[in-house]
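SAMPLE LOG
Freezer: B-3
Tube label: C17
Construct: single chain, 204 aa
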Amino acid sequence: MITLHALKYSRATRVLWLLNDLGQPCNRIDYDRTHAFRAPDELSKVHPLGKSPVIVDGDEMIAESSTILRYLAAKYGDNSHQPEAGTPAFWRHEALFDYVEASFAEVALQVILPAFNGEDAPRAAKAALADHLDYIASEVGEGPFLCGQTLTLADIQMSYILALLERMELLGDHPKVLAYWQRLQQQPGYIAALDAAGPMAPPR
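STRUCTURE (predicted):
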């Protein structure tokens, strides 16, 4: 059985979501954040950078939530969370999947982190975030998900950043993205993950 090292209020919820969708159990080891909202020292004994999520599967230790999601889909022979391999839809999905952490997260955190500290983000950071949220709205299109009717790994990957943005009340001017996020929260795997491990974002 896979062991999941899960930091509270973190990307680890993405992993639990997919495992629930796949009907696969895991041995979950939970870690509380410090008073400074950082990962505790115990996680550095699992991964040199103190990362979460991390999964251990036999002799394999894998970090980075995108890699973990791909690993689990491959391990369990899951083809339901991605378009057919090699098609234009597949490569569009892969680009969106990687976009979340490669591009979107950095821009979003430049607004989220000041908000957590009760500060106003720079105007340029807000403008950049607005551009990205407009882009996501256009990619959702008629939806309900990024790739149409089927929930994909890219949707699961998108969830954590959207949870933080909603927590900081930063989605109000982007109703299409907010509606998309509300649909994601209605998914059974997401609900089961929160029931098991608590919310993605810290409470207000």
